[in-house]
Design brief:
Number of helices: 5
Largest sheet: 5 strands, antiparallel
Bound molecules: calcium ion
Number of strands: 11
Length: 318
């Protein structure tokens, strides 16, 4: 019989291998399981086209390079201090959402979680972060596989006039539960298509924030200190050795002089999208897709920090 601890150790091994390989891996980030890939979207799925001070008329249609708009942690409402205010159209907010607008019916998007979503009966299993118009409505479906016949409807998202959801740009967490094992696929399907039914999705994630109780869980649930590259809850020489192996490398998808061999084909459109899709190099501590003195400064700042849950001298990051 495999124990839970054995399972976590296997996963930790996979996580550590991921540090070296640079390939996308299933992962929790800060205790939540975020969607890892988009497996299907209809032809009019697009971002909102919002530009600060503009009207939102310049939307881009989603393509394989921009599926990251709905992957990874919520990122469409983040001010320079990393705190959102629930509104997507501030001057500092980026248009990292995808959905539908105008009167184009029968639109849908399906995201996949590499790690199945928990079906705990009393918990909210999945959270969809979105904004929508007053008359918007979408059905939400869950599946253990991506067979259209096997999807189970788990609820509806609907806008309400003068409320949230229902106010464009005002984010809302739509929460759903289900009694299905091993759900990896979540689908949203457009049910209304006329004026005021636009709907844009920022992220899809497990609802619960899982706090770690062991070093292995710190790594598994994505709570490691940025510079803790070997994910053992301590920032020390072992991490510095890993850091130096990547020194002065880069993987910025928009820079032809960088090494793109570990990126998917086609690659995410920008560096941020690469991180949202799970293809960042861990030693790129500031997530700008270059490993240089800016990262070294972060490493120096975190030198000898620790977040081992079993060591009272360490500081938890959760
Ligand atoms: Ca905002
Ligand atoms: Ca997003
Ligand atoms: Ca370490
Ligand atoms: Ca960097």
């Amino acid at each position: 019989m495999f124990t839970r601890k054995f399972f976590f150790n296997v996963v930790l091994f996979v996580v550590i291998v991921g540090v070296f390989s640079g390939s996308a891996i299933a992962r929790y980030i800060n205790g939540r399981n975020w969607a890892d890939s988009v497996v299907h979207y209809t032809e009019d799925i697009q971002n909102s086209g919002f530009v600060p001070g503009g009207s939102g008329s310049g939307a881009e249609i989603m393509d394989p390079c921009t599926v990251w708009w709905v992957l990874g942690p919520s990122d469409a409402d983040v001010d320079p201090n990393g705190i959102g205010n629930g509104y997507a159209w501030d001057p500092c907010d980026m248009d990292y959402v995808a959905g539908w607008r105008f009167a184009t019916p029968q639109q849908e998007i399906v995201v996949k979680f590499d790690i199945p979503l928990d079906d705990a009966p009393d918990a909210n299993a999945v959270v969809i972060h979105l904004y929508c118009g007053s008359y918007a409505e979408a059905s939400v479906w869950a599946g253990a596989d991506n067979d259209p016949c096997n999807y189970v409807r788990i609820g509806t998202i609907a806008g309400v006039e003068d409320e949230i959801p229902g106010t464009p740009g005002r984010f809302y967490d739509a929460r759903f539960n289900f009694a299905i094992d091993n759900v990896r696929y979540i689908k949203v399907y457009r049910e209304t298509a006329f004026g005021g039914t636009g709907m844009f999705f920022d992220s899809f994630a497990s609802a619960d924030v899982i706090e770690p109780t062991s070093r292995v869980e710190v790594a598994y649930y994505g709570w490691c200190i940025t510079s803790d590259l070997n994910k053992d809850c301590y920032v020390n020489l072992l991490d510095f050795a890993l850091f130096t192996t990547n020194w002065l490398t880069c993987n910025n998808p928009t820079d032809g002089s960088c090494d793109h061999s570990s990126l998917p084909e086609p690659p995410p459109s920008i560096c941020h999208g690469l991180w949202q899709s799970g293809y960042g190099i861990e030693a790129d501590l500031n997530h700008d897709c270059y490993i240089d003195v800016s990262d070294l400064a972060i490493f120096a700042e975190e030198w000898l920090e620790c977040n081992d849950p079993c060591n009272p001298n360490c500081t938890p990051t959760w």
